[in-house]
């Protein structure tokens, strides 16, 4: 799509009547609630799925690479925000031993030939939390901030040609488009700085849609502990840092900067009257409230929604609004057919992981917890929401060093080993409730349990490398790029079959 065609498409989207769009969404909500009450969105069993994002790097220099659109289509991946991004999704499968292993096999089956094809063009697909080496011959700041004005529309030069991404820079909603992190400040005219980050997103389809709020409540309580295990983005591209001493930058780094990036780029500035859209959500009292929250969320880009033969085209305006309903844990209602309609929970805090098996381990543990905790009426349900939110942001800052609060049968605890001992035990219980043997459940939990035992996350691995280098007098930029080279090199041999702790042997 040319710049002029893209600008015209953005202008067309912005011309849609917002009030009428909102009216249509509210009308659809009435029908959606009726379908939920009638059991249309129930499943015969729990079902899991996974979104898996990557970025492209030069196979010789580790520098960020744009992925040609035709190549992306040939390897069967979906485009994301940046031209360097790629995404694949697994088909939803039953939560049982075959369904979880199926998640692994789908990712391996798609990624193995994709890696071979991209490798022929000296491109390596990297599963990571945040890229740090800019494209050859460019600076990171240039890549993230380059934009042009075409026919009065602001177009991000390095963004994919998705109309909604570009429309965000041309609407009245006051996204700040700014990176705000310790010793980092970068201002852009588009949402492009958000393309620094990549993620995995486990999905859990609830068997009985009205039970979604109860499982949602537990999902919020496990968000902090699971994020602390998964942190993977302690450093930015070196040139993004302000003028500060290298050791100070290293000391003040968060273990997971993806949380702050997403919030600071897409939310309005402090003091704005506009409601922040990226945030840790509150508990739900009912499934109807979950629908109402999506419908009532501020609309950024209205657009004329296309409909076809899908069942959930009856709720097309709600589905479109959901696309900018940015909560770290969020409910989803969709389905291409009536029989496939589902209510699910998307778990969005986790950054990209070093290997496929690490990503599937998070999917299995998250799903196991959502099976066991409600069934056993686990007392962490009563952990105050404010404390659950504090756990979440503490985990982003400090990873496994965070001071997290949990509740066990013996009462409230902040002891890390007690917290995770209880969490892993209930993840095992939940997987066994879905038919896995004890040995199979332990196999999926093992990659995360070993992180705990070693007190080593991908972020800590990166941070330790850079800290050692800086202490030895290596400039911060060289230390970060050396770390990135180590990460990509070790992933080369383990992405498809290994796990992160293999790197520590």
TrEMBL record:
Coiled-coil segments on the chain, per record: none
Domain of life: Archaea
GO molecular function, one term: ligase activity, forming carbon-nitrogen bonds
InterPro entries: GCL_type2/YbdK_subfam, GCS2, Gln_synth/guanido_kin_cat_dom, UCP012666
Name of this chain's protein: Glutamate--cysteine ligase
Organism: Halorhabdus tiamatea SARL4B
């Amino acid at each position: 799509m040319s710049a002029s065609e893209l600008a015209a498409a953005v202008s067309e989207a912005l011309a849609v009547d917002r009030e009428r769009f909102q009216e249509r969404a509210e009308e659809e909500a009435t029908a959606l609630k009726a379908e939920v009450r009638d059991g249309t969105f129930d499943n015969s069993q729990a079902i899991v799925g996974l979104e898996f994002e990557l970025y492209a790097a030069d196979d010789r220099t580790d520098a960020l690479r744009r992925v040609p659109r035709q190549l992306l289509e040939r390897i069967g991946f979906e485009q994301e925000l940046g031209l360097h991004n790629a995404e694949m999704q697994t088909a939803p499968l039953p939560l049982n031993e075959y369904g979880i292993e199926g998640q692994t096999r789908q990712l391996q089956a798609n990624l193995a030939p994709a890696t071979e094809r991209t490798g022929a063009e000296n491109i390596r697909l990297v599963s990571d939390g945040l890229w740090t080496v800019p494209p050859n011959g460019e600076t990171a700041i240039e890549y993230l901030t380059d934009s042009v004005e075409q026919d009065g529309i602001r177009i991000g030069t390095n963004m994919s040609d998705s109309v909604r991404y570009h429309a965000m820079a041309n609407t009245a909603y006051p996204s700040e488009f700014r990176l705000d992190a310790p010793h980092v400040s970068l201002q852009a005219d588009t949402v492009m700085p958000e393309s620094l980050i990549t993620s995995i997103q486990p999905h859990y389809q609830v068997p009985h849609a009205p039970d979604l709020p109860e499982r949602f409540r537990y999902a919020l309580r496990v968000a902090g502990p699971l994020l602390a295990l998964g942190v993977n983005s302690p450093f930015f591209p070196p040139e993004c840092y302000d003028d500060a001493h290298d050791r100070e930058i290293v000391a003040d780094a968060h273990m997971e900067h993806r949380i702050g990036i997403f919030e600071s780029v897409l939310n309005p500035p402090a003091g704005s009257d506009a409601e922040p859209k990226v945030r840790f959500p509150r508990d739900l009292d009912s499934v109807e409230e979950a629908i109402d929250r999506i419908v009532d969320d501020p609309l950024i880009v209205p657009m004329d929604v296309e409909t076809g033969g899908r069942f959930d085209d009856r709720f097309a305006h709600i589905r479109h609004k959901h696309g900018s309903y940015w909560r770290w844990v969020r409910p989803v209602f969709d389905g291409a057919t009536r029989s496939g309609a589902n209510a699910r929970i998307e778990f969005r805090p986790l950054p990209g992981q070093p290997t496929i098996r690490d990503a599937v381990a998070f999917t299995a543990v998250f799903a196991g917890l959502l099976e066991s905790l409600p069934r056993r009426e686990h007392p962490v349900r009563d952990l105050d929401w404010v404390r659950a939110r504090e756990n979440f942001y503490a985990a982003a800052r400090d990873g496994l060093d965070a001071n997290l609060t949990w509740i066990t049968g013996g009462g409230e605890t902040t002891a890390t080993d007690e917290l995770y001992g209880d969490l892993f035990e209930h993840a095992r219980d939940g997987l066994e409730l879905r038919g896995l043997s004890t040995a199979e459940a332990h196999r999926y939990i093992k990659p995360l349990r070993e992180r705990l035992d070693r007190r080593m996350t991908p972020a800590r691995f990166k941070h330790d490398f850079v800290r050692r280098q800086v202490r030895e007098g290596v400039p911060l930029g060289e230390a970060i790029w050396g770390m990135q080279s180590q990460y990509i090199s070790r992933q080369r041999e383990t992405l498809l079959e290994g796990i992160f702790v293999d790197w520590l042997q």
